[in-house]
């Protein structure tokens, strides 16, 4: 890697430095826009005791679900984990800790983390179990919860196209949490479908500017569909 | 007769207005999209980051990168926009969505809603529901009036952990359309052929019954 050329040649290199006990932020919503090859590389590396921050935790046998199978995750911060039988089993047996977090709060925690904002106030969760142990403050007569931001040792992100500078664009709703995770990793690794020539991406259309990105790798993707729904 | 799922969706669709941005939850709320009146333009928001959700795709246009919040493959209509999850919830939390329709296990006379967690059963998570109820001014809850065992879901106080406090003002059940105000349910309409007495007997929270309670009409 030299200057602004953030391309790496292998998935092994893409996740060099990931160690046991680290926090990993992952983009994706359900199975849409997940960094599937980076997840598989974590499985191959056998890194353990990970804290994973992701909206969902994959399904049995795909996405983050493969790391559950190998018992590599000890804590999950997510908004919805309903698609995963193995997750349920590990949760009930106490092998894994889960912090259920409202989806908008989770997105904002990552956004704030990447933007250098340590905490923020939101009305989401006031009067619910989410408020337990959190500071509440009133603004204009309405109560708000203080939520602390999240950063990670690594962020693993799935983009559509990138240039070697690390500028990234996402495709359709595969964007979701990806640009937020990208801002909040100490080391942000983005895997994309295509690395384009310098100048090929319109600067005004970049979703994730290269300043947030440390490593870029080109991969091939299965893109599994969770709920295949077509019109008759 | 209690309303069918389709009739419930049809009744809620009458609350739409031309030019509304609307978020529809998973389940019966999703069906509301099928009954948007002709000539009315409504933009559907899907909290995974899509404003302007179109119909399901054909086999030819099916695309793994194009899904809704229920993880179903969808399309984008003309005039749609796509954005990050933070942007999506900025719209929701910031009160920019005109109407939110979602399901629930229980609501109570204080406008509290419980929809995400039954203690002792597997907890799957709240997803975006807590943000939606906290951010929206205009929410309609769609649910059955009572459980299969006949237990009322319209209570004086929710028994399950809340999704949001003091945020619900309107409820459509399979038996009635009700508003919540000043610590009581107010019976506004009843399902065709359903008596006021039946609704009274299946409503555990304080219920105000006006002199005249019109029947809903369906074509």
UniProtKB/TrEMBL annotation, chain A:
Source species, domain of life: Bacteria
Transferase is among the record's keywords: yes
Biological pathway: Aromatic compound metabolism; beta-ketoadipate pathway; acetyl-CoA and succinyl-CoA from 3-oxoadipate: step 1/2
Keyword terms: Transferase
Catalytic activity: 3-oxoadipate + succinyl-CoA = 3-oxoadipyl-CoA + succinate
EC number: 2.8.3.6
Family: Belongs to the 3-oxoacid CoA-transferase subunit A family.
Listed name of the protein: 3-oxoadipate CoA-transferase
Species the sequence originates in: Pseudomonas poae
Organism classification: Bacteria, Pseudomonadati, Pseudomonadota, Gammaproteobacteria, Pseudomonadales
UniProtKB/TrEMBL annotation, chain B:
Keywords, alphabetical: Transferase
Domain of life from the UniProt record: Bacteria
Associated pathway: Aromatic compound metabolism; beta-ketoadipate pathway; acetyl-CoA and succinyl-CoA from 3-oxoadipate: step 1/2
Pfam families referenced in this protein's UniProt entry, alphabetically: CoA_trans
Gene3D superfamilies: Glutaconate Coenzyme A-transferase (3.40.1080.10)
SUPFAM superfamilies (alphabetical): NagB/RpiA/CoA transferase-like
Residues annotated as signal peptide: none
Reactions it catalyzes: 3-oxoadipate + succinyl-CoA = 3-oxoadipyl-CoA + succinate
InterPro entries for this protein: 3-oxoacid_CoA-transf_B (IPR012791), CoA_trans_fam_I (IPR004165), CoA_transf_AS (IPR004164), NagB/RpiA_transferase-like (IPR037171)
Entry EC number(s): 2.8.3.6
Family classification: Belongs to the 3-oxoacid CoA-transferase subunit B family.
Entry protein name: 3-oxoadipate CoA-transferase
The species this protein was found in: Pseudomonas poae
